[in-house]
C-alpha cells in the first residue's frame, strides 16, 4: 500500500474563503488573505478584514465568508498597514464549500455583492497633490 502524504508540521494552515454561491474566491494563510492568482489582497485582525490599502471590507464569518451590515458606518482607513508578507505555497484547488447559514436582510456577502472589491484602490484615500 502506498503511504499517505502527511502534512508537514511547518505547512501553512489554509482557510478557504467563499462567496454565498459556493465559489472559492480567496485563501487565508495566517492573518493574510491571498486571491486565486496568489496576490496578497487583505489582512485579518480580530476577524475584521482590511484591504492592502487600509480600507475595511467586512467581518470574516465562521463559515468563511466576508460579511457586513447592509447599512453601517465604515471605520476610517487604517494607516498601520502591515508589510507585504512573503508569498506562501497556495493550494491549487479547494475542498467542497461548507453549508452556509442564511443571511438576514440586514447582512450582505461582500464578495457576492462586489466581487471586485479587492481589485480597486479605496475611494476613501485622499487625493494626491
Assembly type of the chains comes to single chain
Name the helix and strand elements from N-terminus to C-terminus, one letter apiece. Answer: EEEEEEEEH
Helix content estimate: under 10%
Instruction: Provide the gyration radius in Å.
Output: 16 Å
Tell me what portion of residues adopts beta-strand conformation. Answer: 25-35%
Brief summary of the model shown:
By secondary structure, this protein is mainly beta.
Structure description:
The protein is 3% helix and 29% strand. The protein has 129 residues and is mainly beta. It has one domain (14-118). A hairpin with a 4-residue loop joins strand 5 and strand 6. The longest helix has 4 residues, at 110-113. The chain starts with 13 loop residues before the first strand and ends in a 16-residue tail after the last helix.
Fold topology:
Elements lengths: L13 E5 L5 E6 L2 E4 L4 E6 L2 E4 L4 E5 L5 E4 L37 E3 H4 L16
Antiparallel strand pairs: 1-2, 2-3, 3-4, 4-5, 5-6, 6-7, 7-8
Amino acid at each position: 500500500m502506498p503511504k499517505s502524504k502527511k502534512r508537514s508540521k511547518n505547512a501553512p494552515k489554509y482557510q478557504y474563503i467563499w462567496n454565498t454561491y459556493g465559489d472559492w474566491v480567496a485563501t487565508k494563510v495566517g492573518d493574510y488573505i491571498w486571491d486565486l492568482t496568489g496576490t496578497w489582497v487583505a489582512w485579518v485582525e480580530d476577524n475584521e478584514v482590511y484591504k492592502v490599502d487600509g480600507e475595511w471590507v467586512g467581518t470574516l464569518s465562521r463559515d468563511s465568508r466576508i460579511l457586513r451590515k447592509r447599512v453601517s458606518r465604515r471605520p476610517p482607513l487604517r494607516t498601520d498597514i502591515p508589510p507585504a508578507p512573503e508569498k506562501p505555497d497556495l493550494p491549487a484547488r479547494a475542498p467542497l464549500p461548507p453549508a452556509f447559514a442564511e443571511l438576514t436582510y440586514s447582512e450582505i456577502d461582500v464578495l457576492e455583492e462586489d466581487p471586485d472589491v479587492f481589485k480597486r484602490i479605496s475611494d476613501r484615500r485622499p487625493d494626491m497633490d
